[in-house]
Amino acid sequence: MMIFLRKRLAPEQRALLFRQLALLCASGMTIPKAIQRLSQRNESKPVRTHCRALMENSPAQTGLEEALDPLLGRAIACLSAKADPNELSAALHEMADTIETTNRYGASLKAALAYPITVFTVCIIVWALLLIFVIPVFEKIFLDFSGALPAPTSSVLAFSGWVRAFGIYLVPVASLLFVLLKYFPQCQTPLLWLFAPLRTVIQNVAAIQFSHLFAALLKAGLPISEAVTLATQAVDPSAYGRRLKRAGQAVSDLESFKDQMKRMKVFPESIMAVVDIVDQTQTLSAAFTRFSQYLRSGFEARLSKAYRTVEISAFLVVALVVGTMVIAMYLPIFKMAGAIGG
Question: Coil, strand, or helix at residue 223?
Fold first, then answer.
């Protein structure tokens, strides 16, 4: 039941809950007392319901910090054990920032993948309409054409006939492809790899999501192996996200972390050079905080550039295919006009 309720709490509401807890903890309240207060008085009904469920499932208020959030609960428990209200409040605010960052760039990732899929879907529909409804009109005109048709024209007519005869069988294939791309993000990898700008965007999203949460967990005092495991769970399941998860399973200490970081090739080489000289966990936390800020600073520009590149590529492909069809259909007419003129 608790897992179900946590999943229903949207990222914006999770961030709101953490900010409310931060304000209450700054006044000296403990996490259990703050949750009890929020379960009684809160303008956000989902947050209030979530806090009530936490209280009902933890009557003795033991382990309430860890039950608070699936990814950040352990970090909150470690911070609560230090009994420093100011440190706990600052950390809760930072965790709220982490939730918002992960959600924001996750949405950007979905948009980066949805855009090219939408553009090329429209392109395929346009081509299908031309092949099914426009080309047959020319085919009827060419029935009375004396002599052999030019090779490009014959090829387009033959392909149009094939689409009209067997195109119906492509509908379930297209539907299956749509379902795979929508509900199984790992199936988007082959399409993604066709566009280098989108690969860069998705690589940046995975690096930002991991860096921000990983730094917050380390700062809270979690062991590096546990921090890596939790941070990888927040990364979207792209090709780079799966690469981070596999690497996280092999991390046990700082040296193994450096080794896995080199192998996964998710972060730029300049960042890897800094990680390689880090010798303390505290320094590693500060480094990844800076990495996240650095990657976020130019992300919007890179995303916009990727969109423009995909858009221009789509227009060029459409123009090339449609132009080829039009020229192929008019070649017999040009040939006929030349024969009459001669």
Answer: coil
Same domain, 312 and 222: yes
pTM of the model: 0.72
Distance CA 183, CA 206 (A): 19
Q: What confidence tier does 7 reach under pLDDT thresholds 50, 70, 90?
A: very low
CA atoms of 88 and 62, how far apart (whole Å): 18
Does one domain contain both 37 and 111?
no
Quick check: is 216 in a domain? yes
Q: How high does pLDDT run on average in the chain?
A: 79
Distance, CA of 57 to CA of 76 (rounded, Å): 18
Range list of H helices, the chain: 2-8, 11-26, 31-40, 45-57, 64-68, 73-82, 85-129, 135-141, 151-166, 170-183, 189-192, 196-220, 224-233, 239-248, 254-264, 269-276, 281-297, 299-341
User: What range defines the domain where residue 214 resides?
Assistant: 100-342
Estimate the crossing angle of helix 196-220 against helix 85-129, to 10 degrees.
160
pLDDT of residue 297: 85
Same domain membership, residue 254 and residue 153: yes
Report which residue type is found at 310. Answer: V
